[in-house]
UniProtKB/TrEMBL annotation:
GO terms for molecular function: DNA binding; structural constituent of chromatin. InterPro entries: Hc1 (IPR010886). Belongs to the histone H1/H5 family. HCT subfamily. It comes from the Bacteria. This is Histone H1. It comes from Bacteroides fragilis. Might have a role analogous to that of eukaryotic histone proteins.
Length: 58
């Protein structure tokens, strides 16, 4: 679970950086990367939910 949380943090940092570039500099490529990162984060959050539920049952 710790590894998953680290991956989420890395992806979220990349998302924030790219989203800010899109907003501040109207960088379209950064917007594409931010959207891709948001999809990856969504998948990881679903996985975290599964792992967290399993850990709470023990």
């Amino acid at each position: 679970m710790k590894e998953l949380l680290e991956k989420v943090n890395e992806s979220f940092a990349a998302f924030i950086e790219d989203a800010n570039l899109q907003i501040e500099k109207n960088n379209k490529a950064a917007g594409t990367r931010a959207r891709k990162a948001s999809l990856e984060i969504e998948k990881m959050m679903k996985e975290f939910r599964k792992v967290s539920l399993e850990a709470s049952k023990q």
